Amino acid sequence: MKIALAIASRARAELLAVVLPRWMAQSRPLDAAVLSVTSDLDLPFGKVQPPMIVVSGAAGLCRQRNRALDQLEPAAPDIVIFADDDFIPAVDFVAGVERVFNEASDVAVATGWVLVDGGRGDVVSIESADRLLAVYGTMQPVEPALRETTGGYGCNMAVRWSADRSLRFDERLAM
User: Fold this and answer.
1) pTM metric for this prediction
2) What pLDDT, on a 0 to 100 scale, did the predictor assign at position 28?
3) CA angle 134-138-142, nearest 5°?
4) Helix, strand, coil percent content, the chain, rounded in steps of 5
5) Phi/psi at 167 (nearest 5 deg)?
6) CA atoms of 88 and 81, how far apart (whole Å)
7) Measured between alpha carbons, how far is 102 from 92 in angstroms, rounded to an integer?
8) Residue among 24, 30, 61 nearest 44 (CA)
C-alpha cells in the first residue's frame, strides 16, 4: 500500500520547521509527500527533504490541496493523508492509517484521534503537544475504533484515493 501526505500552508515557515521533521520520522515512512504553499517565503529553511516535494500557487485550502493531489497523481498512492500545517502526528500515525485501511477494505475516509485541538480552543504549544504525545506513547496500543461518520476532520484525515482518483476539493468553498 502506497501512502502519501498532503499539507497546505501559508505564512507558517517557523511552525513547518518543527512539524515537517515529525512526518519524516514516522515509524512507517511515507511513500510520497507534498507541501503546497503560496510562495517560497512559506518554506522553512533547510527542513524540506525527500520524499517531500513543494508546489506553489494561489492561496486557499481547497486550491492548495488540489494542487497537491495533481502533483501526487503520477505516484498513484492508494491513501492520501491530508494534515493541517500545525498538526503534530504521533510517531506511529502513518502506521495506524495503514493498519486501518488494510484491515477495513470498505473504509473510504478515516480521521485520527485528536488529543487536543487548538483549532477549537486555546492554542497548543509545541511543548504541550510533545508532552501529550509522550503520555500517549506510554499507553497500551488502542485498536482503531471504526464507526460511521459524515466525513473526515480536515486537520488529519486520510482518504482511500485509489477508490476514486478524480477526487478533488470544491475550490468555491471559502477556506
Assistant:
1) 0.87
2) 96
3) 110
4) 35, 20, 50
5) -55, 125
6) 13
7) 15
8) 24
Could you give the CA distance from residue 103 to residue 19 in angstroms, rounded to a whole number? 28
Q: Which three cell numbers stand for residue 68?
A: 497537491
Domains and CATH numbers, the chain: 3-163 (3.90.550.10)
Cβ atoms within 10 Å of 53's Cβ, excluding its own: 15
Distance from C-alpha of 128 to C-alpha of 145, rounded to nearest angstrom: 25
Give the bridge partners for 160, in sequence order.
79
Grouping H, G, I as helix, E, B as strand and the rest as coil, residue 137 is helix
* Residue 95 to residue 66: CA distance in whole angstroms: 24
Return the C-alpha cell found at 88: 503534530
pLDDT tens by residue, 76-93: 899 999 998 888 888 989
Lookup: cell for 175: 477556506
**Rounded to whole angstroms, how far apart are CA atoms 4 and 162?**
12
- The residue behind cell 478515516 is 110
